[in-house]
Design goal:
The chain is an alpha/beta fold and 270 residues long. 30% of the residues lie in helices and 28% in strands. α4 packs parallel to α5. The two termini are 29 Å apart.
């Protein structure tokens, strides 16, 4: 097995919980240069190994503001919810995002001015994101502070559909998958029903129960289309429950709307 050497970047403490930023080496290379990925790790104050959730970030709107690519994405509401329950939270930053190396290339137009609507350009971006997660999981499986029998994958927006698709593509490690307002393309793309349905159906081979949390006022992914994605996922053999909550696209920032549902889900899959 390939051994990773972690390069720590920054360490801080919040309310006795440990939050670190690490750069992990990968097998990925671009233009002959090895690629490192940034990973923010949030640990409870108790001793490990910990049940662990890998939480995946979303896109950057229309993909037309490159400065946003370099923002490291975490979520305080998710962090606090899981830390309070003794879980470790890992936020991987995919290629070209945050401090991660490589090119951010998750389905752009040929001129790279914004995300592409064409399925033949957009969906390969999902494959690229899955490649990045493969590298993250190689690292996760070597960590002694991770309870390997209690792994969960989750995410918001593009990270939500990525979590479901990845669980279906690599089902063995995970006890569950949580999708917050997931979708690969928003409604401004006329192809969004086809692309999102195709992406979600990739998760159908995952035999454990998934949890879908969607804001009924989401302006990117209309709730009717989200239900249609879930129906397609179920028709393809996927297992899960769908919840339409009162939030918008920022639902993940409103734990008062989803904390009880997620707590019940964790108890059920345990």
């Amino acid at each position: 097995m390939w051994a990773f050497k972690i390069r720590p970047v920054a360490i801080r403490m919040t309310n006795a919980n440990h939050i670190t930023t690490e750069m992990i080496p990968t097998r990925l290379r671009e233009r002959g240069v090895p690629v490192e990925l940034e990973m923010v790790v949030c640990k409870p104050s108790t001793a490990g190994p910990y049940p662990t959730v890998i939480f995946n970030h979303g896109s950057t709107g229309s993909g037309n503001r490159p400065a946003l690519f370099r923002h490291t994405r975490t979520n305080p509401s998710v962090t606090n919810f899981f830390l309070d329950r003794g879980w470790m939270v890992v936020y991987p930053q995919r290629r070209g995002r945050g401090k991660s190396g490589g090119l951010y290339d998750e389905g752009f137009r040929l001129d790279r001015t914004e995300y592409a609507c064409e399925p033949e350009l957009s969906l390969p971006g999902l494959d690229r994101a899955i490649e990045d997660l493969d590298e993250v999981m190689v690292h996760i499986k070597q960590r002694r502070d991770v309870d390997q029998d209690r792994l969960l994958i989750a995410g918001a927006s593009r990270g939500g559909v990525l979590a479901v698709a990845y669980a279906g593509s690599r089902p063995d490690p995970f006890m569950g998958a949580i999708n917050f307002n997931g979708g690969w393309l928003g409604q401004l793309c006329p192809t969004h029903p086809e692309v999102n349905r195709t992406a979600f159906v990739r998760g159908a081979p995952f035999t454990n129960r998934t949890l879908w949390l969607h804001g009924s006022h989401d302006r990117y992914y209309r709730i009717a289309q989200c239900r249609a994605n879930f129906d397609a996922f179920r028709a393809a053999g996927g297992s899960g429950s769908f919840h339409a909550l009162k939030g918008g696209h920022g639902l993940v920032e409103q734990p008062e709307l989803w904390a009880e549902v997620v707590a019940g889900y964790l108890a059920a899959i345990a």
